[in-house]
Amino acid sequence: MYDAWTARGRPGDSRFPNGLQMDAPFDIAAYMRDVGRQARAASEALARAGTGVKNEALEIIAVRLLEGAGAILSANRTDLDGGRARNLEAPLLDRLELTPERIAAMAEGLRQVAALPDPVGEITGLAARPTGIEVGRMRVPLGVIGIIYESRPNVTADAAALCLKSGNATILRGGSEAAHSNQAIVEFIRSGLADAGLPPDAVQVVETTDRAAVGELLKLHEFIDVIVPRGGKGLIERVSEESRIPIIKHLDGICHVYIDDKADPGKAIAVAYNAKTNRYGTCCTMETLLVARDIASIVLPELARQYREAGVELRGCKETCRLVEGCSRALPEDWDTEYLAPILAIRVVSGLEEAMDHIRNHGSQHTDAIVTEDFTRARRFLREVDSSSVMVNASTRFADGFEYGLGAEIGISTDKLHARGPVGLEGLTSQKFIVLGDGHVRA
């Protein structure tokens, strides 16, 4: 590691017993460049690794996480205590908390990624040209992926698994609120990599909580190929403004469910309830419910009753307030707010056209759903709603990599290049043209 640490001690030595550099001055720029160089070297070795070796590493890491659950939970308790002392809001604490079940889910995610086909080296579209050469495309790793995220320690394992399987090295910069948890998880990941004969530096966690490290990370264009920010709007806006490296991102998760007047009421109530209450602090949680006027009096009173029992605050348009007792009047900003909390905006609309118009004007192109039994309207919604995930008769909460069969996801992209929607293995690779000949020369 870079010798700038020697004067003050680097994270992990005896002078930093918690494994984290918190406040001692050191050369952050030099440290980050050193991390970048190590990641680039590791990426070259990882790109050569076969599928069997990568899968073996993932299986070993899964076992390590389960065996080390006690140490991980202990580190997580330190982070939770710190978060409560800093008065973190309940949704952030929920994202931060690890449980034995969530650690088991991390291990299962690793095993699911191991079971997925390896995209690296896949050749598609190989075709003979009139000149006799054959031209196709081969999938290759992106190289080094920098991931900047907040709160969720499970992202550490998910991101490492996906980057490993797709042949990419990764640099992880988690939020200070999860620093101890992330450090503990990465130690088991690096141990598993070493046991499988892969470079431990293929997965590195930034070992300082100094915010300046993010700015330095975003400058490392000679070492890092892609940046993935996962977190609040402020973080993603900062990364978008400062990064000299291409990014994969989504800014907001303002997701809608539209209940059409041709919907089955039972399905509509079940979908709309789950989309909001299954988990409040995720980017695919419904934030605005749109209901066709002709069915509003049938579904809204029952939905409101269930939402009230779940502790959800309702904010609605004038018609909604008339139909739902205790509903407060929505303000204009409610239609543009990602609550990440038990708060729901509800609007009664005339029908499909007005619902899609509302989504165009207030949505974030993340995830939107329609509940209807009308095939033609469902097809229109699928075709015309310009979001990264569009659903029919299903909860928006399905919009994640695990549920899509990707094993895990590195994030969700609402951009149209280079990946869109939940980004799994294929989204972490690129394609290059390959040409096969037998001494062919161009005339």
Global geometry: globular
**What is the SS-derived class?**
alpha/beta
What's the assembly state of these chains?
Answer: single chain
Q: So how many helices? A: 14
Mean pLDDT over the residues: 91
Write the layout of secondary structure elements.
Elements: H1 28-48, H2 51-67, H3 69-85, H4 90-96, H5 100-115, E1 123-128, E2 134-141, E3 144-149, H6 154-165, E4 169-173, H7 179-195, E5 203-205, H8 212-217, E6 226-230, H9 233-242, E7 255-259, H10 265-277, E8 286-292, H11 293-309, E9 313-316, H12 318-323, E10 328-329, E11 343-349, H13 352-362, E12 367-371, H14 375-384, E13 389-392, E14 412-413, E15 421-422, E16 429-436
Parallel strand pairs: 3-4, 3-6, 4-5, 7-8, 7-12, 8-11, 9-10, 9-11, 12-13
Antiparallel strand pairs: 1-2, 2-16, 14-15
Helix pairs in contact: 2-5, 2-7, 3-7, 5-6, 6-7, 10-11
Plain-language structure description:
The chain is an alpha/beta fold and 443 residues long. Helices cover 41% and strands 18% of the residues. The protein has helices at residues 28-48, 51-67, 69-85, 90-96, 100-115, 154-165, 179-195, 212-217, 233-242, 265-277, 293-309, 318-323, 352-362, 375-384, and strands at 123-128, 134-141, 144-149, 169-173, 203-205, 226-230, 255-259, 286-292, 313-316, 328-329, 343-349, 367-371, 389-392, 412-413, 421-422, 429-436. It has a 7-stranded parallel sheet with strand order 10-9-11-8-7-12-13, with helices on both faces. A 4-stranded parallel sheet has the order 5-4-3-6, sandwiched between helices. Strands 1-2-16 form a 3-stranded antiparallel sheet, with no helix packed on it. Helix 5 packs parallel to helix 6. The longest helix is centred in the N-terminal third of the chain and has 21 residues, at 28-48. It is globular. The N and C termini lie far apart (53 Å).
